[in-house]
Design goal:
It is found in: Cell membrane. Its EC number is 3.6.1.27. GO terms for molecular function: undecaprenyl-diphosphatase activity. Keywords: Cell membrane, Hydrolase, Membrane, Transmembrane, Transmembrane helix. This is Undecaprenyl-diphosphatase. By secondary structure, the chain is mainly α. The protein has one domain (4-273). Helices cover 78% and strands 0% of the residues. It is built from twelve helices and no strands. The protein has helices at residues 4-19, 26-36, 41-50, 52-62, 64-71, 81-117, 120-142, 154-166, 174-184, 189-215, 223-248, 253-273. Helix 1 runs antiparallel to helix 2 (26-36), helix 6 runs parallel beside helix 8 (154-166) and helix 7 runs parallel beside helix 9. The radius of gyration is 18 Å and the shape is globular. The two termini are 35 Å apart. The relative contact order is 0.22. The mean pLDDT is 81.
């Protein structure tokens, strides 16, 4: 018979491998799942962030050819449009990653203090409010999918980096906020999600490293469960990324975010009342 903690780890890894590619906040939904399974709010948050390392590996393998093309522009100088586009994307990834790291660290420390003060219901309600906010952002951004910009600017990098840093808060979708910001800036939906997922590789890896440094090791779960969850999220993430990116173009995930957010908000209020 499978140990309960190991089963929870496998389910969490599967959810991360799927939810990371959807603009519905994998962190927020997995944190809600772990809270429902009895995890302490702080432990649930740390474990959901840790699982991003697995999907960072999946994204790195999936986008390996594109990453190789971008990195090949480093030692060369070829003054043509293709080269300049790769250079712009490399600069975008570097600046946005630094910006998101600074903002994310500040947001994480603030969140850590808030979580320690909130009761269980208050924490769930907070995730619900942030999910609703993500849904509203996605709904608004969908109306701006009219542009055809391709080459990112320094301002784009800073803006997207700040938004991605804030997405460390459970309930704020990383892919939803970054892609949504790029839509506002005039990029097509396909290009916005492509840049968003390239940026997810260093960002997700950084989230895992942040948890590792904050906890002094693996999250507060059994090492075997942590490794199994990480491996599961990487495998499922790689197997599902292509089909789920196609689904994103067809499904109104803003409504999913708002629906889950309302349920979490009401559930948190109910817990506080009783």
């Amino acid at each position: 018979m499978v140990d309960k903690s190991l089963l929870i780890a496998i389910i969490a890894g599967i959810l991360q491998g799927i939810f990371e590619w959807l603009p519905i906040s994998s962190e927020g939904n997995i944190t809600l799942f772990l809270r429902a399974m009895g995890s302490h709010p702080e432990a649930a948050l740390q474990f959901s962030l840790f699982l991003h390392t697995g999907t960072a590996i999946a994204a790195g393998v999936y986008y390996r050819d594109e990453l190789k093309r971008v990195l090949e522009s480093l030692p060369e100088w070829r003054p043509n449009s293709a080269f300049q586009s790769r250079q712009a994307e490399l600069s975008f990834l570097a600046v946005a990653t630094v910006a998101s790291g600074v903002v994310g660290l500040l947001a994480y420390k603030t969140l850590d203090a808030v979580v320690s003060e909130l009761a269980g219901g208050g924490f769930v309600a907070l995730i619900g409010v942030l999910l609703i906010g993500t849904g509203v952002l996605l709904r608004t951004a969908n109306r701006f999918e009219l542009g055809n910009r391709e080459t990112p600017t320094l301002f784009d990098a800073l803006l997207v980096g700040v938004m991605q840093g804030l997405a460390i808060l459970p309930g704020i979708s990383r892919s939803g906020t970054t892609a949504g910001t790029l839509l506002f800036r005039g990029y097509s939906g396909a290009n916005a999600f492509r840049l968003s997922f390239l940026l997810s590789i260093p960002a997700a890896a950084g989230a895992g490293v942040l948890v590792f440094l904050d906890t002094g090791g693996l999250p507060t779960v059994e090492p075997t469960s942590a490794v199994v969850a990480l491996a599961t999220s990487a495998i499922v993430g790689y197997l599902t990324i292509d089909i789920l990116l196609r689904i994103v173009e067809r499904v109104s995930f803003w409504a999913v975010c708002i629906g889950i957010g309302i349920m979490a908000l009401l559930g948190g209020i109910f817990i506080l009342i009783i």
